[in-house]
Structure formats: structure tokens, C-alpha cells
Amino acid sequence: ADIETVNLYSGFVALCIKLLNEHGELVAIIPRSFCNGPYYKPFRNIILNHTQISHIHLFDSRKNNFRDDEVLQENIIIKLVKEPPVTHTIKISTSTDGSFSDYNEYSVSSEAVVVSSDAEFFIRIPELKHYDVSLQDYNITNSLDSLNLSVSTGPVVDFRAKKYLSQMPEPETVPLVYPLHLNMTHCIWPQANSKKANSIFVNNETRRMFFPSGYYCAVKRFSAKEEKRRITACVISPSDFSEPQSFAFENHLNIFHVGKKGLDKDVAYGLMVFLNSSIVDRYFRSFNGHTQVNATDLKQMYYPSLQELKTLGVWAQKCQNLTFELIDDYVERTLCHHNVIAI
Q: Is the peptide bond before 169 cis (omega within 30 degrees of 0)?
């Protein structure tokens, strides 16, 4: 059928789109995971090239819908119309669960849902409480490439490297960092009572996965929808360890770096502050409806300039007790202008 997809639900919907007559309508209850990420890009292409998105319904609760069938993904209802893709209005509606007892709806431009300049064709679903008609008036427009920064998924898949892992530091090992080691501003390592390893042995098989000692910003790859922040960013500092020459990062982390080397210290702290802010959280939730934070998602975002990141970083290092509330207040005052959501 000439359909490239990675999942039965997306394959089924793609076939239905091809079978639709002109002006035909399709309504589907499907997981939201197709809205972003590289694997569903061909499926998003089919939707956006052959149909118009007419209506999207969001459920605020991920647990109450389809509970009897043990479905735990976040699901949406989407209505597509087989019409040429042009700028149009999309209806967004919400309810807590499938009873629709607190149904609410509003309309947004299709440009707010699919940004024409986005090469990945992410489908964003702006929530009413976060949606602003000025969403397109971005104040922050720097790509990671333009900043000479990179983000990569941690290369150590622990079950594949099991024979090289060590519960505690030993001679000829380097620190292995998991999400459990991370606090917002530092790394708590080693953790003696953890079920996870704290180190990995140095050899020809593992050495290619190491990063030289330095400052890095790490983002946890998994979160719960109900958590306060979808993105949880942390700083990894050389001072958190006993004079390591290298670090190893486990696969459940995304790592910001410069050519697989450490970041400028102030930039590392600045990235941590920016990524932990509410403006990023609101933006990220508009297109990410599952618990995974992919490196691709972080790559397609826009960021402040290096100087702005350094300003955020210098401020963060002076704070005695950094909190999300302090971060939001400072980011709003430093980066946001004219009440625009600055992403």
C-alpha cells in the first residue's frame, strides 16, 4: 500500500485516509504518540498532505479512559477531512474523561497546530489555558545548531552492557550516570543502595561511549503526565565526582554537549534553568502527549542566545535554594517580552 509506518494504528488510519473520497471524513480514537518523534514523520506527512485536521479532543486524565482495557497511553480523538491542505481553523476540545461532563472547546489557527517552518511536521495541540494568539511571535529563535550545541541520547544501554557494569567505583572504571543520580543542580553519585550500577569498566568496547569530564546538562527521557514538569533538566558537574577523566551516561538520559565535550559552565546552568521553566513546559506539552522526551524533540526546539543562557546560568549559581517558582519568575523577567510565550 506504499505506507511507511511503525504501528498498526497509524497504518490503519493511513489506509483509511487513502480510501476516503473527496470531502470524506474520518474520526479516530488513537494514541497521541504520532504527534511528534521521528518514527511517525511519514504518517504525519500522509495526514497533512491529504487531509485537513478539523477537530482534536484531549482528555485531561490518562488513567480514566479505557481503564477496563488496561490502556495507559494518552489518547485523543481526531477528525480529518479529505480536503487540500490550506490554512484553516481547527477546533480543540477537552474533557477530564470519556463522560464529557466538563466538555469545553475553542478554536485555533492550523498554523498554531502545524508550524509551516517545522521540518519535522510536529502536531501541536495548544491547551486553552496556555494558548495565546501571539504564539507565533517568537522571541527565542536560536536552533541548537546555530548555538553550536548538540543533544544526544545516553549511549549506555545497561542490559546490553551488563557484563561491563560495576555496582560501586573500582579501579579502571568511570562514573555511570542514571536519572536516579540527578538533582536539579548537581549529581548525587555514587548511590550505594541503588539497584542500578554506579560505574562502568574501561575497555575497547565501552570507551567509545564515554564523554570527557566537564559540565553537561542532562534531561530525563521519561516522565509522568501528572508530574509538575514534563522536562526535568539537571546539571552534571565534574565536582560531583572524585576527579574522573570521563563520564558515561545511561540511555534514559538526553545529554546536551558540544561535539561530545562539556559545555561552558554558565551555559550548562543556563540550559538547566531554561528547560525547567514553565514556558518550555507549556510549549512541550502542546506537541508531546506521552511520557518520553526524545532527543529529536529537544533538537527541534528554539533556545535563547548563548549570552542569555549565560545570564540565566550565572543567576542560578548564585541562588541558595533553586526552585521552579524562582526559575519561572526569573525567566519571565529575563526572556519574555510583551507576555508572549517565548519558544
A: no
Q: CA-to-CA distance for 214 and 263, rounded, in angstroms?
A: 7
Q: What is the pLDDT of residues 34-85, one digit of tens each?
A: 888 788 999 999 999 999 999 999 887 666 656 655 555 678 999 999 998 8
Cell of 8: 498498526
Q: Could you tell me the pTM of the whole model?
A: 0.71
Residue 275 in this model has a pLDDT that exceeds 90: yes
Model pLDDT for residues 103-135, shown as the tens digit of each residue: 998 888 888 788 777 788 888 887 655 444 332
- To the nearest 10 degrees (0 to 180), the angle between helices 306-318 and 324-335 is 140
- SS3 string of the chain? CCCCCCCHHHHHHHHHHHHCCCCCEEEEEEEHHHHCCCCCHHHHHHHHHHCEEEEEEEECCCCCCCHHHCCCCCEEEEEEECCCCCCCEEEEEEECCCCCCCCEEEEEEHHHHCCCCCCCCCCCCCCCCCCCCCCCCCCCCECCCCCCCEEEECCECCCCCHHHEECCCCCCEEEEECHHHECCCCECCCCCCCCCCCEEECCCCCHHHCEECCEEEEEECECCCCCCCCCCEEEECHHHCCCCCEEEEECCEEEEEECCECECHHHHHHHHHHHCCHHHHHHHHHHCCCCECCHHHHHHCCECCHHHHHHHHHHHHHCCCCCHHHHHHHHHHHHCCCCCCCC
Contact 302, 140 (CB under 8 A): yes
CB 60 within 8 A of CB 225: no
- Per-residue model confidence as pLDDT tens digits over 295-316: 888 987 889 899 999 999 999 9
Only one residue has cell 533538566, namely: 233
- Separation of alpha carbons 172 and 87, rounded Å: 59
Task: Take residue 286 and report the three cell numbers written for it.
Answer: 502542546
State the Cα–Cα distance between residues 173 and 138, nearest whole angstrom: 45
